[in-house]
Amino acid sequence: MPLFRSYVFVRLDEKDREKVFQFPGIVRYLYWLGKPAVAKDKEIQLIKDWLDNDCYAEFRVDNLYSGKKVQIKSGAFKSQEGVIKHVGSKRLSLVLDNLGCVVSVRIRELAQ
Fold first, then answer.
1. Residue 78 and residue 6: Cα distance in Å, rounded?
2. What pTM was estimated for this model as a whole?
3. Is beta strand 91-96 parallel, antiparallel or unpaired with respect to 101-106?
4. Model confidence over 79-95: pLDDT tens digits?
5. Burial of residue 46, with CB atoms counted within 10 A of its CB: 0-12 exposed, 13-18 middle, 19 or more buried
6. Are 47 and 99 a contacting pair, CB within 8 Å?
């Protein structure tokens, strides 16, 4: 299953933007704030690093609730700000506006 359903990331020059529509199933570009969305190399690398390393030395869930703004202090998404979308018993969903995505993180119980 794709990480971002219905999305394809492409790297191309501005003059070649229309070439993507030569492929079946491509409907349109994603827009963010009225402009074509651009995923920076650094952001793509953050996602790749996060996927490669689904392991955290410490992860505490205290006083977290839907709608709370948080800043990630360590790991692949260090310094990114997000808004908690959902806190479940085993997973937490976090909206990362700067990356234009929602990430789901597995919550592990820490040894006492």
1. 27
2. 0.45
3. antiparallel
4. 888 888 888 877 788 88
5. buried
6. yes
Whether pLDDT at 29 is above 80: yes
Domains of the chain, earliest start first: 14-106 (2.30.30)
Burial 20-33 (b: 16+ CB within 10 A, else e): eeeeeeeeeeeeee
Tokens 């794709």 locate to 2
pLDDT in tens, 48-106: 877 777 555 444 555 677 888 888 877 777 788 888 888 887 778 888 887 778 888 77
Spell out the SS3 assignment of the chain: CCCCCCCCCCCCCHHHHHHHHHCCCCCCCCEECCEECCCCHHHHHHHHHHHHCCCCCCCCCCCCCCCCEEECCCCCCCCCEEEEEEECCCEEEEEECCCCEEEEEECCCCCC
